[in-house]
Amino acid sequence: MNAPATSMEPGVLRQLSDRLRAPLPRKTRFLLELSGDVRALTLRLVEDGFTPEEAHRRALDALVPDDETLRRLEGLHRSWYRRATAGWTETRLKRAERMGLAAAFLLLLTIQTATILSADFVGYVSPFLWPVLASGAAVVLAVGRQAFRLWVKEDYVRPGAGLKRLLALSVLPPAVAAVGTWLDVVRLADLLTHRPELEQALVLRSLIQDAAMLAIAILFALLGGLGWLLLHQWSAIQEDAHRRALDTTTFPEE
Amino acid sequence: MGSFVTDTDFDVQGFARDINILLVLSTLRRGPRHGYQIALDVEAQSSGLFRFRHGTLYPILHRLEADGLVRGDWSREGGGRRRKEYALTDKGERHLSGEADRMEEIMQRFLRLVRAPGPATA
């Protein structure tokens, strides 16, 4: 007699993982629960006198969900956001989300502008601070958007997908600030060539302006980097747990 | 005895679902069990009349867990493998009692209806 088949073949679990469109932590937990039950039921049926192959086949037949059952599981494990917007078409939902994103971007820009205006900085800031603020707002929103996708909407196949773009976007504010600083220096040099008597007044002021702009840009980059780190770590932990549940070294979608 | 069933609350479509829920809850009343044990117990206790196939047990268990009628607990077995076990909660116990009474009344009404004698023939 062959040794009892006590665990599900990775192929069966992997196939099931592909067929079940549920958020990863919950999908992983279900696969763990199912593989444990299949293993235990197989052993129990072998004890009852079935051959290992027949016991395993019966256990799979009893416990592995068919498509209809998988759809019911998907419905049960949808996020609260998905349940709340269940009556919306995908097009309407996407449009609403884009409008929300645009509104959040404008709100963030308004808050930043209001802060600068209230501190009476306008006369002292580099003109390149405005694109830095805009790109910084884009970084903050991108972090928020990914967090929303992973933790509120829970609408993904692979949680880690798309996170590299966030890291690339975080470089934008310092890049804009660096270009702005360089242009400020060129402008200042040009001005001082024609009016050297302004050197005393303008050099220090320009240094402060550009240092402030660079500091703000670095702050945005740090926010983006920290956001990326947090989301990336969470995704890596979830994907690793899923791989272990599947008893495989690669993610199903890879 | 007061009536548990009103004319509006009996859902024919959901009757099979209600039966499955009661089967799971009544099995868990005998103590915490893993999912496969629930399936085996239901089949054994009903002498094969009721069977869960193709994983239909899991949506029921997950729904009951979300509703707080059962509690799922994870434990570790040999080899570090994790297993999930379900236990009946107090809320589940109360639900089982109420639903069993309701089901009994439905079945009594149903049997009265189908066993009612026809008109006497000459």
Plain-language structure description:
The complex is a heterodimer of chains A (254) and B (122). Chain A is mainly α. The mean pLDDT of chain A is 86. With 122 residues, chain B is an alpha+beta fold. A three-stranded antiparallel beta sheet of chain B has the order 1-3-2. The longest helix of chain B has 26 residues. The model of chain B has no long low-confidence stretch (mean pLDDT 85). At the A-B interface, α2, α3 and α4 of A face α2, α3 and β3 of B.
Largest sheet of chain B: 3 strands, antiparallel
**Averaged pLDDT of chain B, please?**
85
Report the order of strands and helices of chain A: HHHHHHHHHH
CATH architectural designation of chain B = Orthogonal Bundle
The helix tally of chain B amounts to 4
Q: What would a concise description of this structure say?
A:
The complex is a heterodimer of chains A (254) and B (122). Chain A has helices at residues 10-19, 24-47, 52-63, 67-76, 80-84, 90-118, 129-153, 163-170, 172-194, 199-246. Chain A is mostly helical and 254 residues long.
Task: Outline the fold blueprint.
The complex is a heterodimer of chains A (254) and B (122).
Chain A: H1 10-19, H2 24-47, H3 52-63, H4 67-76, H5 80-84, H6 90-118, H7 129-153, H8 163-170, H9 172-194, H10 199-246
Helix pairs in contact in A: 2-3, 2-10, 6-7, 7-8, 7-9, 7-10, 8-10, 9-10
Chain B: H1 15-28, E1 33-34, H2 35-45, H3 57-66, E2 70-76, E3 82-88, H4 90-115
Antiparallel strand pairs in B: 1-3, 2-3
Helix pairs in contact in B: 1-2, 1-3, 1-4
